[in-house]
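Let us work through a complete example step by step.
Step 1: write down the sequence.
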Amino acid sequence: MTSVYFWLRNMRASNLVFMAISPFIIYALLTARNYGAALRAVLGIEDNAPQLLGSFTLFAVTAGIGFWGALQLMKSSGIDQDTDFARKCRQRGLVAFALQAFALLYLANSAYVQPYLISLVVNSFDPRTTEWIVIVDQSFTLSEGYDVYFLSKISQVLTYGAAFSALCAALALTPLRVLHGGRSFVFLSLLILAQFAFFFYIIMLGYAGFAVGLMVTLRAAVFAYLGASILGLLWAYLGKLAPSEMMIKAFIAAGVLMIGTGVYIANKPHERAVLVGSLEGPIGIVAGTPSSLIDTVRYGEFLEIVPDQPFKVRSLQDNNTAIQLLKSGRITAAVLPPELAGDLPLIWEKTYLPPADKTAATIAFVGGVLFVLLGVVGAITTTHPLVVFANFFVDTIRGIPMLVIILYVGLPLAGALKSASNGYLDLQMMTRGIIAIAIGYSAYMAEIFRAGIEAIPKGQIEAARTMGLREWHVARFIVVPQAIAIVLPALGNEFIAMLKDTSLVSILSVRDLTQRMREFQAQSFLAFEPFNSAALVYVLLTLIAASGIKALDRVVNKSRGHAED
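Step 2: predict the structure and record it as tokens.
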């Protein structure tokens, strides 16, 4: 009883309040007519959710066991490691890899996990562009024949994984001198990385059909947080660079060179296009025509008097198609190269820079101006140009609302990137939202990391340098561990804020918790149930995150002597 009292005493007060009212919440969910349906819709729970959840748990445990076993082998390979401890680590690794091998063999031949595997395959592809995905009973599934094909391939992969786990178990039986010291470090690091990749895929990358909406939200939050942390560390590091006159000159010289390159590309020979025919009917425009030229033709800006209504424009595949449609009368005018116009009546002609050259010239010119500006400002303020850039980026991003950043990155910027790459860089809406959130929060993360770095006594850094440590080692072993321990609560708060702000990606039609809530509300016309269900899920997620952050803060700061009571 005493232990329970102390456990409750050490819990967060908000968690105790939520535990007290949770029976009433559960009762309301079970007895209310619409709350169950709303919660299922918000979470994205499929019909066979219990079986999918069980399969997901089996795969997650299997991957986690392998990752733990790889860590045990790494512990046993230390140069100064105690023999008995190393032997125990080998024994644990043996048991872990043996269990993983048997589990993978079971998963490779079990019919129980097949619906989960099919769910992984279906949710890994775009149903709009994939021929083997069909809609059955308002849900996506594999078409007939492809389910057998994919299941057989996955079974082979799992069988190979079981053989690999058996090989790792055999390595755990080898004498301690094998896989010992620095000779085995690279191999064991790759083994840990492979096991972690398997575990991370099951937990974060593979869509779990038992709660697709929840997994989408968690995925967006985790990946955006990782991206923001990396960018924040980068901005914080750049902000600590010492002034350099040589770098200032290099930036100015590089900027002038880039501007010259942009001017040169912009003055390359232009291509010509002519508008021929008559303006009585639709105008054909071949795919690949610059958008500025298309807009000029569509809105009649080439005429002395701009018409009140835009012309009807028809997109065509190639020039030959345009000529054929002109002859057949299905279009009355077309934008063509001069050599293909023949004796058709000339309406308007225009010279233009090819889109690829225009993009290259724009990038070179804008980048050159930016480099020169950074160099000049750095010379005036006696600051490293990269410090100027980092400070400008942080201050600018913090002044833009997150919704604006998501819309800008997700729509016009992603569209421009797709156009500049000829369709090769067509990011998914989910990826666009993650990148946008990572960029937005990186500015705040940079300030957090900067404060943590400045809190480290300069004497420690100077002492490490006098001992001959390189700057990378000083940052790796002295600065970063202490800085993270100091700013851990602030980093946790940023994760909670980011977890909630993932709801903004619903503006890009990403089917997370918020988007599914909106869809269900539009279908059911219910006033409170969808919103209350979504709010409840977000509250649970934030409480779990806050409790985990507090526990992690206690563990990290325990050795520093100021853990919370």
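Step 3: interpret the result. The domain at 271-352 is CATH 3.40.190.10 (D-Maltodextrin-Binding Protein; domain 2).
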